[in-house]
Design a protein that fits this description.
This is ABC transporter substrate-binding protein. Its main location: other. It is found in: Cell envelope. This protein is of the alpha/beta class. The protein folds into 2 domains: about 140 residues, Nitrogenase molybdenum iron protein domain (Rossmann fold, 3-Layer(aba) Sandwich), CATH 3.40.50.1980; about 140 residues, Rossmann fold (3-Layer(aba) Sandwich), CATH 3.40.50.1980. The strands form 3 sheets. Strands 8, 9, 10, 11, 12, 13 and 14 form a 7-stranded mixed sheet that branches. Strand 11 and strand 12 form a beta hairpin.
Length: about 350
C-alpha cells in the first residue's frame, strides 16, 4: 500500500517553514529573496558622480575613505565606519582629525602614495573594499586603477558648505535620510548658538598663508563668514574695493602693506593646524600694521581652526568651530553700535 502524504494546509505550511529554516542555516535564503514583483532583489544601484557613473553595492560593508576633506567624518556622521581612511598626517600632524579620532579607532590608517591626496593603491587593495569614496580632484588620475579594485565614487567639495560633500557621500552609501538629519540638526544648533552673541556688526575674516600673503575673505569664501552674514552681520572689506589679488568672489590675497584694509569691528583669524599654519599665523600677527587694526586695538580678535571652518572635518568640525567662535566672542560682548 503506497505511503499517503498528509497535504493539509497546516502540514504544508509547517513543512515550508522547516524548509526555509534549513535554507537560512545554510546561508542560502538571501540568494532566494525577491522584490515585490517576485524578481531577485537588486544587489547594486547606479550612482552618478563627477567622473561618470558607478554601480555600487546596495549595502556596502567595507568602505574606504580616500581624502582629507571630510569623507571620514561624513561617513561616521552617517553611521558608517569605514575599514580604512587616508592619513591626514602630513597636513595636521595626526592620522585623523581630533574631533573624530575617538570614533575612528577601528579605522585602518592608509598611507599616501606620494602627495597628501594620493592614496597608496596596494594598501587600498589589501583592505578588500566593496566601495571607495574620495575627493574628485584628489583621485581623478587614479580613478581607473581604483575602479579596478572596487566600485569608486568621486565626490566634489564646497569649502563654504560641507553639506555638499555630505549629501554626495550619503547618496553613495544609501544614507540620504541620515544626511538630512545631520544638516538640519546643525542648522538649528548654529542659529541658537549665534543668537548668544547678539549684534554682530562689521566683521573681517582673514587667514595667513605664509610668504607675506594674507587672505581677506568675502561672505562667499568661508563657512564662518556666511554664517555671520546670515545672522545679520556684514563682512568687510568688500572684495570689489579691496586692493590685492582676487580669487573669484571668495577672497582677496593682500600683502602686509595692504593689511590696513581690514577694518572690521571684530576680526576672525583662521589658522591651519601644524607648524606651517602656526608660522603663517605668527607672520600675520607680527606684521607692521597688525597693531593698527580697529579690532586688534579693541581686543576683539577671534581665532579659529581653518580646516574645521572650511568643512574639512565635516559637521563634527563645524560643531567645534562654532563653539570656539561663540565662546570667544561672548567673552568680549557685542561691538559698539550694535544691540545685544
Amino acid at each position: 500500500m503506497p505511503l499517503l502524504l498528509d497535504r493539509s494546509p497546516e502540514v504544508v505550511d509547517a513543512t515550508r517553514r522547516e524548509f526555509l529554516a534549513v535554507l537560512g542555516a545554510a546561508g542560502l535564503l538571501t540568494a532566494c529573496s525577491s522584490g515585490p514583483s517576485g524578481a531577485p532583489a537588486p544587489t547594486t544601484r547606479t550612482v552618478t558622480h563627477p567622473l561618470g557613473t558607478t554601480e555600487v553595492p546596495v549595502a556596502p560593508t567595507r568602505v574606504v575613505a580616500l581624502d582629507r576633506r571630510a569623507a571620514l567624518p561624513h561617513l561616521l556622521a552617517l553611521g558608517v565606519t569605514p575599514v580604512g581612511a587616508l592619513t591626514y598626517e602630513s597636513i595636521i600632524g595626526t592620522a585623523f582629525p581630533p574631533v573624530v579620532a575617538d570614533r575612528a579607532r577601528e579605522v585602518a590608517v592608509l598611507p599616501t602614495g606620494g602627495g597628501a591626496d594620493e592614496p597608496n593603491l596596494e594598501a587600498v587593495a589589501a583592505l578588500r573594499p566593496d566601495l571607495v569614496i574620495g575627493w574628485t580632484d584628489g583621485i581623478s588620475e587614479q580613478y581607473p586603477a581604483l575602479s579596478r579594485i572596487a566600485p569608486t565614487v568621486p565626490v566634489d567639495v564646497d569649502f563654504t558648505d560641507a553639506a555638499v560633500s555630505l549629501r554626495a557621500i550619503a547618496a553613495a552609501v544609501g544614507r540620504e535620510a541620515e544626511a538630512e538629519v545631520v544638516v538640519r540638526a546643525f542648522a538649528e544648533r548654529r542659529t541658537a548658538r549665534l543668537a548668544e552673541i547678539g549684534g554682530i556688526g562689521d566683521v573681517s575674516v582673514v587667514l595667513g598663508v605664509g610668504d607675506g600673503q594674507f587672505r581677506v575673505y568675502g561672505p562667499n569664501g568661508s563657512s564662518v563668514a556666511r554664517w555671520l552674514v546670515e545672522s545679520g552681520g556684514r563682512i568687510v572689506p568688500e572684495a570689489a574695493t579691496t586692493t590685492g589679488e582676487a580669487y573669484e568672489d571668495m577672497y582677496v590675497t593682500v600683502s602686509p602693506e595692504s593689511l590696513g584694509q581690514v577694518t572690521g569691528d571684530t576680526l576672525v583669524v583662521m589658522f591651519n593646524t601644524g607648524a606651517a599654519g602656526e608660522a603663517a599665523r605668527a607672520e600675520l600677527e607680527s606684521s607692521p600694521l597688525w597693531g593698527t587694526l580697529p579690532a586688534v586695538r579693541a581686543g576683539r580678535v577671534v581665532r579659529i581652526n581653518s580646516q574645521e571652518s572650511v568643512g574639512s572635518y565635516g559637521f563634527q568640525g563645524y560643531d567645534a568651530v562654532l563653539d570656539s567662535l561663540v565662546d570667544q566672542w561672548r567673552a568680549f560682548g557685542a561691538p559698539r553700535g550694535t544691540s545685544s
